[in-house]
Each structure stands twice: as structure tokens, then as C-alpha cells.
Design goal:
Layout (H helix, E strand, L loop, with lengths): L1 H16 L4 H9 L4 H6 L12 H13 L4 H4 L5 H7 L21 H28 L5 E7 L8 E2 L4 H6 L3 E2 L5 E7 L5 H19 L8 E6 L6 E5 L23 E2 L16 E6 L10 H4 L5
Parallel strand pairs: 4-5
Antiparallel strand pairs: 1-4, 1-8, 2-3, 5-6, 6-7
Helix pairs in contact: 2-4, 7-9
Length: 298
């Protein structure tokens, strides 16, 4: 009896210290985690790159269970909608929101919808912070945000079997931040890499938003010609000796990473599909961070 009481006290303490919801605790218990493990994984002041415990738990749960189980979510769907959902591959890329049984959405599905939208906001905040930091470097001429973070999230049937078979359309899941940076000199990439790290650390310290360094992809371009140069490497040394470092041209300039067979698509930077965050020549200043500084950490 005393052991059970101690365990309950432990979960209560973990929920308070890690800022977990009841659903986060349920996921952690389903994963076989214990309160001490959760508390141990709270990011320390020197680990600002680490995501909050709640994000870590949700990511583990997602990988193991493929998001919320259909039975647990209580999704009720007609046989016709289930049959239509099985044919999704025939119209990949099209708007499939008409398959979405919104009238039977349980709270857990609505919560997942909210979290996916919130994640896009977090990544946009990361783009703002990194752009403000990059704008202080004279070698940076221009910064453009592109990819799913830059555009309104389209609804799609996720790859997870429970939602796919049920025909539940959710917002697209943003996995990283894509920034195009026009750089006049590639001999200072280590400074650029450290500047990025300090920016995402500041984001966590000031807004409580955890975005890992490697989740910000920086695509480097040449001013004037818009020629793709490569990506900013996240490794701490160059060359690192990893298999990735063997790609042709990788490390020709320190911390300039190349990906074998990768071809940058200029159409990704179309103004209709991207956001201009900073342009030194056009006097377009970096985004204001006022809206993030006053926000309560979550």
C-alpha cells in the first residue's frame, strides 16, 4: 500500500516538475517510463537544445504506437468512409479533407490537431529568432522561409494506420524549419553555425519553445546568381568523419555540407510559397520578436 502511495506521489511530482498533462502521463505510463526517468530528462540550463519532457514523451509514443490508437480515440466511422480511406493512394497530393468525419471527432483528435498547428507556430518562432541573429552578420544578405512552415497547413490523411483507415484528415506535420540564406562569403560558416545555436537556445530561454539545432535546415545560396551552394552543417567539427561527409564536395568549405544526388528546387522559393524574412538590400528588416518575448512559456 505504501509502495502504491509512493508511486502516485512520484507521478504527481513528475507531472508538476515536467509540466505534463494527464494525457502525457498516460502516454509515459504506456511506454513503461517511471517518474524518476521523466524528472531525470528535464533539460538542464546547459541543455537548452533538448526538447521539453512532454515533447519527448509524445515523440516516443508516436514512434511506438503511431499516434493515438483508434480504439482509444473512439473513432466511429461508416463502412463507406473506411472503404474510401483505403483508396487514398489513388489521389495522393489532392485535398482529402472531405473524408474527415468531423462530427465524430473525440477530444484526443482535436488535441492532436491543436498540437500540430502549435508546432508550426513554434517553428515559425524559431525562424524569427534565427533570422534576427543572422541579420547581425554582414555576410548574410537575405533570409527566406520556405516549406510547410511558411505556408498554411494543408489537411491530409496521416501515414499512421489508425487515422488513415478511419479517414481522419489532420494538418500536415511540420518536422523542421527550412531557411534559404544568401551568403556573400562562405569562409565564416562556423560563426553562422554558432549563431544559429545561440538563437535556438535563446528561443528556449525566453519563450520556453524547444527546437533542436538540427531541426533548422539552412540552405545557402550565392547572392546575385541564386546558385545553390550547399547546407550549413550541424556537426561540431569539419570534417566529422561520418558517412555523410563522403558526399562529393562536402567540406570543400568548412561546415558546407553536400548531399549526394540532391538538387535544390528554385521553385520552392516562389514568393507565393515562401516568406521573405530579411533582405539587406531592400531594407527589409528581420521580424520583430515582441510577440514572443511576452508569451508565457508552455
Amino acid at each position: 500500500m505504501a509502495r502504491k502511495r509512493n508511486l502516485e506521489d512520484g507521478w504527481a511530482e513528475a507531472k508538476r516538475l515536467c509540466r505534463l498533462s494527464a494525457e502525457d502521463v498516460r502516454m509515459a505510463q504506456a511506454l513503461g517510463l517511471n517518474p524518476r526517468k521523466l524528472i531525470k530528462n528535464i533539460p538542464s540550463p546547459s541543455q537548452r537544445w533538448k526538447a521539453p519532457v512532454r515533447n519527448w514523451v509524445r515523440e516516443l509514443y508516436r514512434k511506438r504506437h503511431g499516434d493515438f490508437q483508434r480504439e482509444a480515440a473512439g473513432i466511429a466511422i461508416s463502412a463507406q468512409a473506411r472503404s474510401e480511406a483505403k483508396q487514398l493512394d489513388d489521389f495522393a497530393g489532392e485535398d482529402t479533407s472531405w473524408l474527415e468525419p468531423e462530427h465524430v471527432w473525440p477530444p484526443k483528435i482535436r488535441e492532436e490537431d491543436r498540437l500540430l498547428r502549435r508546432r508550426q507556430e513554434e517553428f515559425r518562432a524559431a525562424a524569427d529568432y534565427v533570422t534576427v541573429a543572422f541579420a547581425q552578420l554582414p555576410v548574410v544578405d537575405r533570409v527566406v522561409l520556405f516549406g510547410s512552415v511558411a505556408r498554411p497547413l494543408r489537411r491530409e490523411i496521416p501515414r499512421f494506420r489508425e487515422f488513415r483507415r478511419a479517414g481522419v484528415a489532420l494538418p500536415h506535420e511540420c518536422k523542421d524549419v527550412d531557411l534559404a540564406v544568401w551568403l556573400s562569403d562562405t569562409s565564416h560558416l562556423e560563426v553562422l553555425r554558432k549563431t544559429l545555436g545561440r538563437a535556438v537556445n535563446a528561443l528556449f530561454e525566453e519563450a520556453g519553445i524547444g527546437v533542436a539545432h538540427h531541426q533548422v535546415d539552412v540552405f545557402l545560396l550565392e547572392p546575385g546568381s541564386d546558385r545553390y551552394l550547399g547546407r550549413l552543417c550541424h556537426f561540431g567539427t569539419c570534417p566529422k568523419g561520418k558517412p555523410e561527409c563522403l558526399a562529393p564536395g562536402c567540406g570543400a568549405a568548412l561546415f558546407l555540407r553536400q548531399h549526394e544526388a540532391f538538387v535544390f528546387d528554385p521553385q520552392a522559393l516562389d514568393p507565393a510559397r515562401s516568406l521573405l524574412l530579411f533582405d539587406r538590400a531592400a531594407a527589409c528588416g528581420p521580424p520583430s520578436l515582441d510577440r514572443w518575448r511576452d508569451e508565457t512559456p508552455f
